[in-house]
Automatic annotation (TrEMBL):
This is RecA family ATPase Rhp57. Gene3D superfamilies: P-loop containing nucleotide triphosphate hydrolases. GO terms for molecular function: ATP binding; ATP-dependent DNA damage sensor activity; DNA strand exchange activity; double-stranded DNA binding; single-stranded DNA binding. One of its GO terms (biological process) is DNA recombinase assembly. It is found in: Nucleus.
Length: 365
C-alpha cells in the first residue's frame, strides 16, 4: 500500500497490510470508498476497518494553525519607506502581483527584488537565490548588473562589503517559457526540483497573462476571451498555477512575485447596469477606479484576482509630464497593508521613494 508516500514510519498490522495489498487498495481508496465496499474487497471486520480509516484520517488531516503562531516574514523592496507602507515589504509564503501598463516598471521592480533576496537578512534580504521565469524577452542581465552597482547607495548605513554582490547573475536562475505548455511544465516539474536543489527565496513570473492570451484567443479591444468554452479551462489552469506557487512559497519560505499586464477600462453607465454589477464593484480590487485619469483592468479576471494575496499597481503619473520617471505604487489589496498610494521614481538605481516624498510621507525618518 502507498501510505508511505504520505507519511513516514506508519505501518499497518500485517494482516491488514496483506488484505489491502491483495485487494489493490490505495490510501485514497481507504479514505474515499464506502466502508461496505472496503469490507467486501478485503474480507475484514467492519468495526476494525472503521478504526483504521479513522486512524489514517487523523494522521493525514492538515495540521491546524493558530493565527498568533503564524509568523509572517517579508523581503525588502530595497526602500525603507516602501517597506514601511507595505507593512514589512513583499510577503514571504504568499503570492504578490505587480500590475501596470507597458513601461510602468514591473520588470524593473522584479529585477530589483532578484537582488534584494540575495542580501543578508540583516538588510531585509533572505540570503537566497531567485528564479526569474520570463514569458517574453528574458532577464536583462545588463540592467541587473547596473542595479547591483547601486546597492551600497540604497543601504548607506551598511558596510559596502555587506551589500555588494559581485556577480548578481550567479544567484538568479533564468528560465524562458514562450508558450503555455512549457510554462506549465516548468512550474509543475522543474521549479520544485530547483527548490530541492538550491535555497530559493524568490520566484518571479514575468508576465503571467502573455501565454494565456496567446492560447485562449483574447480580444484585447473588448478585454475578454472570445471563446467562452475556454474560460472554465483557463480558470482551472490559473487555480492550479497559483496553488503550486503558493505551496512552494510556503514550504520553502520564498516570496512569489507575478507581473501582470493591464488593459483599458471603459467607464459604464452604472445607473443602467447597477451598483452591484461586477463592473462597478471591481473598481476596488482592480486597482483603478473611474476617477483615475487612465483607468485600467489587470488581465485574467476574477478567478486570478481571487488567487493573489497582494495586488500592487504601478501607475504612470500624468500630473507632471516633465518628470517621465515618476510612478505611483498603489497597494490595491493586501492581507498586511492598507490601501495606499506611494509616490515612487524609476532611475538608474531602480525603484525608490524620492527624498522629498520621503520627508512628506514620514517626517521622522
Ligand atoms: N537604466 C535605466 N535607468 C532609468 N530608468 C530605466 C532604466 N531602464 C528602464 N528604466 C525605466 O523603466 C521603464 C521600463 O520598465 P519595465 O521594463 O519594467 O516596464 P514593464 O512594466 O515591465 O513593461 P512591459 O509590460 O512592457 O514589460 C522605462 O520606461 C524607464 O522609465
Amino acid at each position: 500500500m502507498d501510505i508511505s508516500n504520505y507519511v513516514a514510519n506508519f505501518h499497518f498490522d500485517e494482516k491488514y497490510a496483506a488484505a489491502f495489498e491483495n485487494a489493490d487498495i490505495s490510501t485514497i481508496d481507504l479514505l474515499t470508498l464506502d466502508i461496505s465496499d472496503l469490507e467486501k474487497r478485503t474480507n475484514r471486520n467492519k468495526d476494525e476497518l472503521i478504526q483504521i480509516v479513522q486512524q489514517v484520517f487523523l494522521l493525514l488531516r492538515p495540521k491546524r494553525k493558530v493565527a498568533s503562531r503564524i509568523s509572517q516574514s517579508f523581503l525588502t523592496t530595497g526602500d525603507r519607506i516602501l517597506d514601511q507602507k507595505l507593512h514589512g515589504g513583499i510577503p514571504v509564503g504568499q503570492l504578490t502581483e505587480i500590475c501596470g501598463e507597458s513601461g510602468s516598471g514591473k520588470s524593473q521592480l522584479c529585477m530589483q527584488l532578484c537582488l534584494m533576496v540575495q542580501l543578508p537578512r540583516a538588510f531585509g534580504g533572505l540570503n537566497k537565490a531567485a528564479v526569474f521565469i520570463s514569458t517574453e524577452s528574458g532577464l536583462e542581465t545588463k540592467r541587473l548588473f547596473e542595479l547591483a552597482k547601486y546597492l551600497p547607495d540604497r543601504f548607506p548605513e551598511a558596510e559596502e562589503s555587506d551589500v555588494f554582490i559581485r556577480n548578481p547573475g550567479d544567484r538568479v536562475y533564468t528560465i524562458l517559457c514562450p508558450d503555455l505548455e512549457s510554462q506549465e511544465h516548468i512550474i509543475q516539474y522543474q521549479l520544485p526540483i530547483l527548490f530541492e536543489r538550491d535555497s530559493i527565496g524568490l520566484v518571479v513570473l514575468d508576465s503571467v497573462a502573455a501565454n494565456y492570451r496567446a492560447e485562449l484567443r483574447y480580444n484585447r479591444s473588448k478585454s475578454h476571451y472570445t471563446d467562452l468554452n475556454n474560460i472554465a479551462t483557463r480558470g482551472n489552469q490559473l487555480g492550479k498555477l497559483a496553488s503550486i506557487l503558493r505551496d512552494l512559497s510556503r514550504r520553502h519560505e520564498a516570496a512569489v512575485v507575478i507581473a501582470n499586464q493591464v488593459s483599458d477600462r471603459l467607464t459604464r453607465d452604472y445607473g443602467a447596469i447597477g451598483l452591484f454589477s461586477l463592473d462597478y464593484q471591481s473598481q476596488w480590487f482592480n486597482g483603478w477606479d473611474d476617477l483615475d485619469p487612465n483607468p485600467k483592468i489587470p488581465s485574467l479576471g476574477l478567478v486570478w484576482t481571487n488567487n493573489v494575496n497582494t495586488r500592487l499597481a504601478l501607475i504612470k503619473r500624468t500630473d507632471n509630464a516633465a518628470v517621465k520617471a515618476r510612478r505611483t505604487l498603489r497597494v490595491v489589496y493586501s492581507p498586511n497593508a492598507a490601501r495606499i498610494d506611494v509616490p515612487v521614481f524609476i532611475g538608474s538605481m531602480g525603484i525608490f521613494v524620492p527624498k522629498e516624498e520621503k520627508d512628506a510621507l514620514n517626517p521622522l525618518l
